[in-house]
Amino acid sequence: MSLKYITPVERFKKYLPKDYVELVDYGPFGKTQEEAGPGNMGQFKELVEEHPMCSGCWMAYYIRLIFASLPNPEDTVTLGTAGCGRLAISQAAVPFIYGNYGDQNAMASGLTRAFRLRFPDKTKDVITIAGDGGTMDIGFSMTMHSWIRGEKFTTIMLDNEVYGNTGGQSSGMSPKGAILKMAPKGKDFGKMPATELARAAGCVYTVRMSPTNIKKAAKIIRRAIFVAREVGPTFIHAYTSCNIEYSIPTHEVFADAKAQEKDRFTFEEYMTDEAKEVIERVEAEEKAARMARKAQKTEAVN
Amino acid sequence: MSPNPEKKLEKKLVDINYLLKEAPREKHFITGAQAMAEAVKRASVDMAIAYPITPQSEVMHLVGDIYAQGHIKEYYRAEEELGTMSAIAGAARAGVRLFTATSGPGLLRGLEAIVSWPGHRVPAVLGILTRVINAPLSIQPDNIEMAYMMHCGAVMLHAENQQDTFDFTLAAFAIAEKVDVYIPVAVATEGFFVTHAKGYVEMTPEDMALNEFDPVAAPVPAMDNETPPARIQRDAPVQKSNFMSYLIHAVWQQEIWDSNRRAMKYIYEYLGGPIEVQNPESDVFLIASGCAAAQAREAWRYAQEAGLSVGLIKVRSIRPFPVDEIRETVKNAKAIIVPEHNIIGWLCKEVKAAIPNGGIVTEGPRVYGGMTLPVELIMKEIHNSLGLEYDLKL
Asked: For A255, B168, B273, B393, which has the most beta carbons within 10 A of its beta carbon?
């Protein structure tokens, strides 16, 4: 139903907003990653287009990447909370649920279970996308308990190491010593060990990364979603700098993200054996499908 | 964590009017907690989420038992009340019938999420088994937490006894899910006095239940990527500081309160109206809700025996509040007495605001902190109002 329900009846198309029709005709719904994925962003109608994020915002780039990487955008629901991220996420062409402060993982718990009740034979991807404050401070208990309960959805933390949207206050994920609002003498404790906490709480797939490599970042997002469908909670901790509050000149945002790969965001990927099995199976299937399409194409040319 | 499909029970599904008004009933002697859970059992609930707090816990234990027996498809104990109430909001987006319950401090802990339910168009049913809030700690009945619930847009029913608790809870699901209502309905009753005390309840058969939830019959489509119209987000103006966002919030909240008012016709249809009136031609009226109504009823009976001109108004619906009904009933009254189980007198304030001559309202008697409400206190106020002497002996 999901793809069908997006698709308008042909004769109605001319009455629908242009943006909507283009999404259906040229967007990623029902398409493969080669047709409409991170590899050819800019060449298809993306789920995220306009957004009010600051110039040079690395978070905006990563959100765009998340939506371009979705394996099943026509059957995905995202949830988020207060913070910069939701300003872009709420403008993606995917259902987005905004509840209250830090409650995204509690809401996702109810939503995922209810989806599984109503649609036991369908895949509905549920993804929470929230900032470091929403995930690790105000939403900490609800984040941790959703993992402890083994809820089958994906949690993505957009870590800009600061409360950007409320004006630059120190968060639990700000580095030690950072002079920020509400830490006027410098933060006196270090970053919370998010991925360690996630593993201790039962996440079956966790990644910490600075998403500088588009292909790799996309692969991680998809892995986290595939594993959550079948095995259990998955978590991506991604660096999405705040160039405003950390005074990173726009042209140095990428260099900063590269530098962080060797600093606070060294790449770390963890998966349980069960998660590994799913990843290997799905990626082998995807590869086989890709090869088959390639062979078909070659045949057609010959 | 896994659903319970293997335990699908055979039930006859019926319409709410049949269930409440025509279905055969059998008399049971049960507690208020049992009455609420028995109503949930007959309501084809899809999912219930629990978190313990005294005196509510008994309700959600029993709901857990009926889940294990297969009457409910999904049930879990959440991390705390904010997590519980948020999960209810999340599950509602998938289009399922939901129930949870809490008490006093638990209600306040979950309040941030609960007060957003109306705006999120969450048609869930919330049991409120009243309890003291604020320091010093007490776990006893006192319904002050209801005052905090009154301004969020939810429908609020206040049950006098075990029978009301059963009937109101069943009706709550039907009222919440009406397309022209579609906001949460809270069913409150006093902790311990009702939840842990037994009373006679005429119950419908166990193998008969309310028709199942219809996720399509909703003013806002479920966010399930199935129910048209397609929900392509792009809600750019919302959550920003511009006139469009002010306007969206304003009209949305107006619609919530209109929905709340539209619930009134269903309160008439299913519960016989928002108030019950005894002796409408009286000089003095007792106006009360919940447990205080039970005590007021007893005082009213004494007054009848003594030949005093005393009437009784039991308020079933706190939201929508029966402003017109109360104003009409007491238009010739000389005095109004409002007995309550809380210190602030929220019902008294509502009554005063509803009538043009608030000066005739006596504030109280009020008890709080878990005290019982002696009928003699109400009798004393009745005598005072009539200019009669009363020898108060407690």
From this structure: B168
